[in-house]
Design a protein that fits this description.
The complex is a heterotrimer of chains A (about 350), B (about 250) and C (about 280).
Chain A: E1 4-7, H1 11-21, E2 23-30, E3 33-38, E4 67-73, E5 82-83, E6 90-95, H2 97-111, H3 117-124, E7 126-131, E8 158-162, E9 166-171, H4 174-179, E10 185-187, H5 190-206, H6 218-224, H7 230-235, H8 243-246, E11 254-260, E12 267-273, H9 294-313, H10 323-326, H11 334-346
Parallel strand pairs in A: 2-6, 6-7, 7-8
Antiparallel strand pairs in A: 1-9, 1-10, 2-3, 4-5, 4-12, 8-9, 11-12
Helix pairs in contact in A: 6-9, 6-11
Chain B: E1 5-10, H1 16-22, H2 28-34, E2 36-39, E3 53-57, H3 65-75, E4 78-82, H4 84-88, H5 94-98, H6 100-108, E5 131-133, H7 140-152, H8 163-169, H9 194-197, H10 214-223, H11 228-239
Parallel strand pairs in B: 1-2, 1-3, 3-4, 4-5
Chain C: H1 3-6, E1 18-27, E2 32-38, E3 45-47, E4 52-57, E5 61-66, E6 72-74, E7 76-82, H2 86-92, E8 99-106, E9 119-125, H3 129-141, E10 149-155, H4 164-172, E11 177-182, E12 192-193, E13 211-216, H5 219-231, E14 239-242, E15 258-259, E16 262-263, H6 264-267, E17 270-272, H7 273-279
The chains are: A alpha+beta (about 350), B alpha/beta (about 250), C alpha/beta (about 280).
């Protein structure tokens, strides 16, 4: 599909068109930071901040809610148990390339094996409207190293690049094509293509690489650093608070808990976000904790990000968004760890 | 099966946690359908000493409280500490650091000698408790979770991880990002990060998690410019019973 | 939408359980109860030795429980349940005729055909006899397909010994050697006393290359028993164990049972000792 152009004068019309198809989520200000929030109607278009730097929580919260009902039950036994696989048409507007990569990773993870009906139903009802980003949000981002500054092939429906008075609109799917089939979109001309090229050239210049090695070597570098002291050193200040995994766009570990109604018989079986950083994550019923020490939990997270998820899904487990660094009260940095493992091997 | 008989008792406290029970407006009929409340000074006149579940609000601050608490322990099959004062001693423990005599003088002046007092303690310093509903005040959901779990015969789902978890799920801007500080990194979650969500900061009213990184907490508070005394005060406000608050 | 999503729209929740009915229940020890289940949907169940089920009691929760009956395509299955958590305690209160919810079988299990012709050495400690029983019953059922069969079992006290009917049968069998020991005897105990590794002295020498060992029990017992097996010249790939982890979803997703890059609920719980060493965090 040839790219099109959307004049910013028509942006409100575009949002209205999205609203016609279902719920719309977009970045809005949250104090000095940003969050994806529902845009309830056309009168809320002014809340949308297409100039946002990065959201606090990634868009995964819309496919894998922090709390979602898997089953409803009426009593202890299996009679009357019902599955609650639900979804509603949703558009997410303004997803940056690194987050599109993360969604592609989650898609791969949740499509493996038993295929997760809950995730895939929500994901399947979602229209992704990506948004190009010219410069890192802050010094913690290393998306260029993780090859996540350009959108993944096929990983969006529409992808917008801000060319000042207009958006350059790339179209990747049939759903995107249908959405762009309106007179608010005009075919991109030579000037638009040139504008997009200039944008991407500037982007490449702004997103400098921060790792001394190509990330294809990351899994192996981690492997040889398993016994390194850096995990111990980093974990000294770790609060095991799970912030790093909650803000991570590719973390998907969860717990399953039964919530009871007041009758103490009926209720819901719910899936909630969990974190391998929390002390009780690997505790079995007998009380044994198989990852009791903070350094082993911290190492496990970093290995998941740099190695395990990639090995299981073929997609990156870390997109270099830097959220886990930004939001860590103890300032523990996965970027620093990924840099240090190269020093270790070279030393 | 007969409905469990439930009693509420209070020691040194503001009775705000019992008020929270009355604040379970949507569920109160459900609770009454499931249990018989036989002793609840704040809500009913009747009194019975025959009960299965005893909820205890308040800290123990007088030696004469001890036999009364022990008697409740003997009568109750399940004894639950209700709220910060019962769980950690709460604010009451502040007087232990201030000096009991000095505190008595401040409060009662010349009449200080008329009143009995001792060091403030949580319930489990005197008798074994079977469960704790934390917080100042308790979150109504946690009280309901406890009641439902007792009825269903399961362990209540009470978090043992930092407030940061719930704060982040609400997508709050971290207080440390705003140049402020907060005890959420070591405080037990379960409040849905009430205070940080409404402009306050966490005082760890729900106690500390079982494996808090206190050393790191002291470090980051120090980096925020707090003096050693300030840092101790932060821990002492609700958590004076823990060793970390003592020096 | 990415390619992965287009192919095959999923509709069915993997969390929906099957109903299973308790048709037999027997208290084995103070803390352990044996159950036999059948399936009201008449679909039966097919499983390998070493696989487990996710048991649900709604409102209480779920727990992974290993299957202790002989493997194969069957109408029923058996479990031996120790009351250690909410779910297992609540299971003990259930009665014959009650139904509960099962998902599974999960895990890799172990195909006993792969050790056909070999001598088999079973080493079970404590509750480890439950999963190990599935292997043992299979070997004894098709006894002719294996070489020598030796069973070592250790319990804390005589009162803790599981499946005493089976133990009596195994002791009588002429085509299998069976040895049992307890850590702490009581007044009536006439058998051996001592940790399970002391039983290795009873085991006749066999060709290590033609022997497969199954060592299933608590981590501390595994550590010492594996040294005995290695001392007899067994190769690391011929020693098999079952790892306990918090297998919550059974689907290789929730992360709780993960050891490094291995989801125990799918790629385990049966691992060779060679794999356990490779995992580093295994034992």
């Amino acid at each position: 599909m040839l790219p099109k152009v959307l004049s910013k004068d028509r942006f409100a019309d575009f949002v209205a068109r999205l609203l016609g198809g279902g719920r719309v989520f977009a970045p809005v200000a949250k104090g000095p930071q940003f969050a994806f929030a529902e845009i309830a109607g056309p009168d809320e278009v002014s809340r949308i901040r297409m100039d946002y730097d990065i959201s606090i929580l990634p868009p995964k919260k819309l496919f894998m809610p922090q709390r979602e009902t898997l089953l409803t039950f009426k009593d202890k036994g299996p009679e009357g148990v019902r599955a609650e696989v639900k979804s509603q048409p949703t558009a997410i507007l303004g997803v940056h390339p690194y987050d599109l990569h993360a969604i592609a990773t989650l898609d791969a993870a949740f499509s493996k094996g038993a295929r997760d009906a809950y995730y895939l139903a929500k994901r399947g009802a979602t229209t992704l409207i990506g948004l190009n980003v010219k410069a890192p949000a802050n010094e913690n981002q290393f998306a260029a190293d993780m090859n996540a500054i350009d959108p993944p092939a096929g990983g969006y429906d529409l992808f917008l690049t801000d060319l000042g008075d207009r958006y350059y609109v790339e179209i990747s799917t049939g759903a995107g094509e249908a959405l762009a089939d309106d007179d608010m979109f005009t075919p991109a001309g030579a000037g638009d293509h040139k504008g997009k090229r200039a944008y991407d050239a500037a982007k490449a210049a702004h997103f400098t690489r921060k790792l001394p090695y190509d990330t294809r070597y990351l899994p192996e570098l981690l492997d040889v650093s398993y016994d390194s002291l850096i995990w111990e050193a980093a974990a000294r200040r770790c609060f095991s608070c799970g912030t790093c995994t909650n803000v991570c766009p590719t973390c998907y570990c969860f717990d399953v808990l039964d919530k009871l109604s007041m009758d103490a018989h009926s209720g819901t079986r719910e899936r909630i976000w969990d974190s391998c950083q929390l002390e009780g994550f690997a505790v079995v019923a007998g009380g044994e904790n198989f990852r009791e020490e903070r350094p082993s939990r911290l190492r496990h997270r970093m290995f998941r990000k740099g190695k395990y998820i990639f090995e299981r899904t073929g997609r990156t487990g870390c997109v270099g968004c830097g959220r886990c660094i930004t939001h860590c009260v103890a300032k523990i940095s996965i970027l620093e760890a990924f840099q240090q493992i190269a020093d270790q091997v070279g030393a | 099966m007969a409905k469990p008989r439930v009693a509420f008792h209070d020691f040194t406290s503001c009775e705000g946690c019992q008020l929270q029970v009355l604040n379970c407006e949507d569920e109160i009929l459900g609770i009454l359908a499931a249990v018989d409340i036989v002793n609840f000074r704040e809500a009913i006149d009747e009194k019975s000493e025959d009960y299965d579940i005893a909820f205890i609000e308040g800290a123990i601050t007088r030696d004469s409280d001890i036999p009364r608490l022990q008697e409740i322990r003997q009568r109750a099959k399940i004894l639950v500490a209700l709220g910060a004062c019962a769980c950690t001693g709460g604010l009451n423990v502040l007087k232990n650091f201030r000096g009991i005599e000095a505190s008595m003088k401040t409060v009662y002046g010349e009449a200080a000698g008329w009143y009995e007092t001792s060091a403030a303690r949580p319930i489990d310093a005197v008798v074994k408790d079977d469960a704790k509903v934390h917080g100042c005040p308790i979150p109504t959901e946690e009280f309901l979770e406890l009641v439902k779990s007792v009825l269903a015969g399961r362990t209540p789902q009470i978090p043992d991880y930092p407030v940061c978890v719930e704060c982040k799920l609400r997508e709050n801007v971290c207080l440390y990002h705003k140049g402020q500080y907060c005890m959420g990194v070591v405080a037990r979650a379960g409040c849905k990060a009430w205070c940080p969500s409404y402009g306050g900061r966490c005082y760890a009213c729900r106690g500390l998690i079982s494996d808090p990184n206190n050393k790191a907490a002291k470090e980051i508070l120090d980096e925020k410019g707090l003096t050693i005394q300030n840092v101790l005060d932060e821990f002492r406000l609700f958590n004076g019973v823990y060793d970390v608050a003592k020096e | 939408m990415t390619q992965a999503l287009k192919e095959n729209p999923p509709l069915v929740s993997a969390y929906l359980p099957r109903a299973a009915k308790i048709v037999e229940k027997r208290k084995l020890t103070d803390g352990e109860t044996w159950f036999r289940f059948t399936f009201p949907d008449a679909q039966g169940v097919k499983y390998l030795a070493g696989q487990f089920m996710e048991v649900s009691l709604f409102g209480i929760g779920g727990a992974p429980i290993s299957i202790c009956s002989a493997p194969g395509q069957r109408d029923d299955l058996e479990m031996c349940v120790r009351a250690v958590g909410d779910v297992t305690r609540a299971m003990h209160a259930l009665n014959v005729g009650d139904t509960l919810a099962l998902r599974g079988p999960f895990g890799n299990g172990f195909d006993m055909d792969t050790v056909a012709g070999k001598d088999l050495l079973f080493v079970a400690g404590g509750l480890g006899l439950a999963p190990c029983r599935s292997f043992i019953l299979d070997a004894l059922t098709r006894r002719g397909q294996f070489g020598r069969v030796t069973i070592l079992y250790g319990g804390r006290t005589p009162k803790d010994l599981l499946f005493r009917d089976d133990l009596a049968v195994w002791a009588e069998r002429k085509d299998a050697e069976f040895f049992v020991t307890v850590d702490r005897p009581d007044a009536d105990w006439k058998g051996r006393t001592g940790v399970i590794t002391t039983l290795f002295r009873q085991v006749a020498k066999s060709d290590p290359a033609r022997t497969a060992a199954f060592i299933i029990g608590p981590p501390i017992m595994f550590k010492f028993a594996v040294l005995e097996a290695l001392g007899r010249g067994l190769g690391k790939t011929n020693i098999h164990c079952s790892l306990e982890r918090r297998m919550k979803c059974g689907l290789g997703m929730c992360g709780h049972c993960q050891i490094r890059n291995v989801y125990v609920c799918q790629e385990g719980p049966i691992f060779s000792y060679a794999d356990v060493i490779r995992l580093r965090e295994g034992i």
